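Milestone M4 deliverable, item 7.
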Amino acid sequence: MKKLILILSVFFAITIIANAQIPNNSFENWITQNEIEIPSVPWVTNNLQEKPLGVTFNPVTKSTDHFPNDVGSYSLRMENNISYLSEIGELLPYWACSYGYTTTAFYPGFFGPVFPITGHPNTLYGYYKFIPQNNDTMFFSISLYYNGVVVSSAYLSSNITVSDWASFSIPLPSYVNADSAQIGFSAFNIESGYPSGPHGNSILYIDNLSFDNLIIGVSENIFKSSMFTLSPNPASDLINLNMDNPMNSLTIVNIYNVSGALIRSESILTNQQQINVADLSNGFYLIEIKTKDWTEKQKLIIKK
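Output delivered:
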């Protein structure tokens, strides 16, 4: 068994390296400048820029709360602090307070190609937690470039609370070729128009970014005992649901998306059931089984 675990660990490590072209994708590497800790290049935050303004709060920090548990040791934590709002801030709120914002860039405010990519990425994956205040809206963005020109871009925004780690996926519109990329995250809506700018002390965590394949830890995927099993996983059209214990009561199957929204609910009649998931788009979902005696959730990846 130890040999099997070692082999699987090496396999998943190779998979992570192969799929994570994004530099410092799990935010393990940090440096200190002017006595302030910041993520290493190519990530840029507003920690250093606010110090001359008298702001002593660092909105971007390293956190030991990370996911998957057996992949890396840290995550990126971003927090707004609207106590720094001023009269100017009423007109330019997110530039005049301490805001949670991180992007791949050469310097703050830079927008353009930052890190090289190979192949043909179609989706950005990762994990996040979001605790919004006052209807703050998190904002994730990705742009692909070829010869310095944007060839594909997409974003994800939400004001839904996600207090437990969940995965996200951002599909990219079709394109021909790309040679570089830029990625950004903020704990507020950075786009113009309401509700842009921080409205509360919202908190956002980000971890384990990758292209086209969600990074899954060994213990998360293989060695967890459960009341039911799903196969295949990843799936494309049909999944087989098998429960270990006899059914003694009504059993409900719920499917949630990455935002925690219930997208399907149905009852099942037998311990072995086949569920059609062909209508689900690529990404991460939670399958919840509810009975009178127990409730359990497992991750499901849809990949077509």
